[in-house]
Write a structure and sequence with these properties.
Blueprint lengths: L1 E5 L4 H12 L3 E6 L9 E4 L16 E6 L4 H11 L3 E9 L32 H16 L4 E6 L1 E3 L7 H10 L6 E5 L5 E6 H14 L3 E5 L3 E3 H12 L4 E5 L1 H6 L3 E3 L4 E3 L16 H5 L7 H15 L10 H15 L4 H4 L4
Parallel strand pairs: 1-2, 1-4, 2-3, 4-5, 5-6, 6-10, 7-9, 8-12, 13-14
Antiparallel strand pairs: 9-11
Helix pairs in contact: 1-5, 2-3, 4-6, 4-9, 6-9
């Protein structure tokens, strides 16, 4: 097959290109960067340029894979590639849904309104921008020539947010011997799809001409189970020290990602459905996911190889020590089994 990847030098796009080459396909990447996998033809272009696709718009493509964030990039791509492409695979997001509350919701759930502009800067507009991309693809290619993959949280080695590698890294490197601070959130779902599994599924879907709209996410597991997998991936004797969510928020610990955070933690239960959507349709279409512990172990190995030392996301050693000292003084040295949500 002749496959065009719009992107291919960053994380997911590069994995898609590598997966396609490994299966014997002729792969071209159109991107601003240059770090494409071996065996891939590169066409350098900036998709902010209205004519960015002129060098690929006269070639017949069996499939196009697009990971764009900006609606204008997608609108121009489907305009230029509609006459020459077979299947158009667009990587969207679960953020297109109007509500993140209902666990088990499927692809028919209500969506946010599409962004009318061609570009956005405010992260709050991310879901609306991806919805606009979906609409553009479906309008140009129709439901029989389109695959919309509403990806959940993507993880694995190379995760630029470091949400994947923080917990195995912290269990491998506790700031206080044999103790790791965690949020007390026993009912919080987590769902992580390995970037390699998502890439492999998209390539297989291109091969089979699979069309449709799919929630492409990893299996939902309770947060304590995720922590147990991280501990196993690190082969660590450290015990979790769960602390009440209100206490953590009162001590300026952030949720989800970034500095001074506990990655993947969400205290607002109206967001629990984000990591608990139905993936039955994608599984029926061939999506397979490796064990979570394998993803976390590989992410830890990558993390140790590229950025040893202070975590890029999460709590620093000093933050962890200070918070644990204050919590121990307030609550006493409690084991995880004493406070629920044991890992």
């Amino acid at each position: 097959m002749k496959i065009l990847v719009l992107g291919g030098t960053a994380w997911l796009g590069r994995e898609i290109a590598a997966a396609a080459v490994s299966r014997g396909h002729q792969v071209t990447c159109l991107a601003r960067g240059s770090a494409v996998p071996a065996g891939v033809r590169l066409v350098n272009a900036d998709r902010d340029d209205p004519d960015a696709l002129r060098d690929v718009a006269t070639t017949r493509w069996d499939a196009v894979v697009d990971v764009a964030r900006q609606p204008g990039h997608v609108r121009r791509a489907v305009r230029d590639l509609g006459p020459v492409a077979g299947l158009y695979l667009f990587v969207s997001t679960g953020n297109v849904y109007a509500s993140q509350e209902t666990i088990g919701a499927d692809e028919t759930a209500e969506l946010v309104p599409a962004l009318s502009a061609d570009a956005f800067d405010d992260p709050e507009d991310y879901g609306a921008a991806k919805r606009a991309g979906e609409d553009a693809v479906l309008a140009a290619f129709g439901p029989q020539r389109s695959l919309i993959a509403r990806a959940g949280l993507i993880g694995g080695p190379g995760d630029p947010s470091h949400r994947t590698d923080y917990w195995p890294w912290r269990f491998a490197h506790p700031a206080v011997p044999d103790v790791v601070l965690v949020p007390e959130a026993p009912a919080l779902p987590t769902a992580l799809i390995d970037v390699r599994d998502l890439a492999a599924w998209l390539v297989r879907a291109a091969e089979t001409g699979t069309a449709g709209i799919f929630n492409a996410a990893g299996p939902a597991v309770p947060f304590p189970q995720h922590l147990a997998a991280a501990r196993a991936a690190a082969d660590s004797p450290a015990e979790a020290f769960p602390l009440p969510e209100r206490w953590l928020l009162d001590h300026d610990v952030s949720e989800w990602a970034g500095d001074r955070s506990l990655p993947l933690w969400l205290s607002d239960q109206t967001w629990y459905g984000m990591n608990g959507r139905s993936t039955a349709r994608a599984l029926a279409a061939g999506l397979t996911c490796r064990p979570l512990a394998d993803t976390l172990r590989d992410a830890l190995r990558w993390r140790e190889s590229v950025a040893p030392g202070t975590p890029v996301a999460g709590l620093t050693d000093r933050d962890e020590r200070d918070l644990l000292a204050e919590a121990t003084a307030e609550f006493g040295r409690r084991r995880s089994t004493d406070v629920g949500g044991a890992v």
